[in-house]
């Protein structure tokens, strides 16, 4: 699991567990701790086949982090059209994309200096 890859954060692990539970695709965790002026410590990115699956993944992330870790999302956006849902937990920011939107925005390329862990 993620701890073996150097991402020992419990919240990161729980988010990845939720994504895997709802069959999210191409899960990537980016450790941004050593990047000066980064907006957070971790980015987690995944994609899904449909807007329904995007919403289901985001809902599962919110549910598991609240139930198991007592963590509440600080800010969230994108539920209206569910093409790209962003969940902001402060030091962990989660991006759940519909596949074509992930390919269009290519967030991973913006953080090329980050430490990457490809979960799947």
Q: H/E element string?
A: HEEHEEEHHE
CATH fold name, please?
Beta Polymerase, domain 2
CATH class: Alpha Beta
CATH superfamily caption: Beta Polymerase, domain 2
**Count of individual helical segments:** 4
Average pLDDT figure: 90
N-C termini distance: 10 Å
What fraction, in percent, of the residue positions are helical? 25-40%
Strand runs, count: 6
**Tally of domains:** 1
Residues in β-strands, percent: 25-35%
Choose one word for the global shape: globular
Give start-end ranges of low-pLDDT stretches.
Answer: 1-6
Report the CATH architecture: 2-Layer Sandwich
Radius of gyration over C-alpha positions, nearest whole angstrom = 13 Å
Strand order, sheet with most strands: 3-4-5-2-1-6
Helix and strand composition category: alpha+beta
Biggest beta-sheet profile: 6 strands, mixed
Short summary of the structure?
The chain has 120 residues and is of the alpha+beta class. Helices cover 35% and strands 28% of the residues. The protein is globular.
Report on the architecture of this protein.
The protein is of the alpha+beta class and 120 residues long. The protein has one domain (2-118): 2-Layer Sandwich (Beta Polymerase, domain 2). Helix content is 35%, strand content 28%. It contains 4 helices and 6 strands. It has helices at 10-21, 51-69, 99-105, 107-110, and strands at residues 25-31, 42-48, 75-77, 84-88, 92-98, 115-118. A hairpin with a 6-residue loop joins β3 and β4. α1 (10-21) crosses α2.
Features:
Beta Polymerase, domain 2
Topology summary:
Layout: H1 10-21, E1 25-31, E2 42-48, H2 51-69, E3 75-77, E4 84-88, E5 92-98, H3 99-105, H4 107-110, E6 115-118
Parallel strand pairs: 2-5
Antiparallel strand pairs: 1-2, 1-6, 3-4, 4-5
